[in-house]
What we know:
By secondary structure, this protein is of the alpha+beta class. The protein has a single domain (2-285), classed as Roll (T-fold). The chain contains seven helices and 18 strands. Helix 1 (24-44) runs antiparallel to helix 5 and helix 5 (141-156) runs antiparallel to helix 6. The model is unreliable at 103-107 (pLDDT under 50).
Amino acid sequence: MIQHRSFRAMGTEVGLFLAAGSGPAAEAALDSAEREFERVEALLSRFRAESELSALNREGRLEAGDDLLAVVDLALDARARTGGRFDPTVHDALVAAGYDRTFEEIAPDGASERPAAQCGGGVRISGRTIELEPGTHLDLGGIGKGYTVDRAAAILSSAGPALVDAGGDIAAQGRPDALGWRVGIETAKATLTLALEDAAIATSGRDRRHWRSDGEERHHLIDPSTGRPAQGDLVRVTVVAPTAVEAEVLAKSLFLAGEHVATAEAEIRRIPAVLVTSDGRTVIAGGLA
């Protein structure tokens, strides 16, 4: 029997799924997983002035709590591993592109007076202190969501096989039956169904969060090399990885790499990936079958 709960957090719809009988233990696990979203969002949202991340961005230096410290460390490691394709210092570039408030509040077609912003600013961790180079600000939206999905899935799985889905960032623990958790991945023209067990999925795409500014189509995936919304030959990339954090990092990195480099990297590194190109093709790579 699957217990299900849905709610809104981190700007998206969240679904919790637990393969367990109804009762106090299942309800307690669902409650705890939902509270984890509320707790981490309150710490990491750049749209909340009182969040720990907002305090860091204002002050440039902060004695950080466990969660902010962990997510910034994960983000810096991801920046190093991806050669800068994944970069938490895209905050100002997102603001310059018009993503200066929650997505629900962005005007469908507005004007922007801000030029493109540089990325790649310095971030240093010393003990519990995070220090930003002057003019550098962090956005932890994607990796923060992946971190929360992983934590919520671990909490939920204490009561049985579990799956957490936060707007397509998915983490599965255990399996509800012999086949595993069935998850649909959108391709160019159909849906590919995967069976997950102790694995995660994330999708990066320019067809999900987009708007118009100064008469141009904008989206939330910033190319750190230009400081502007990425202009490439991919519409979206979906990746399967051991954790939602890693899936987030890989999906963003492959999306920015473009079709040919992304396909080659996925094959060489055995990263299961589904790429949808701007000309309407689906490319399956990394041993995904």
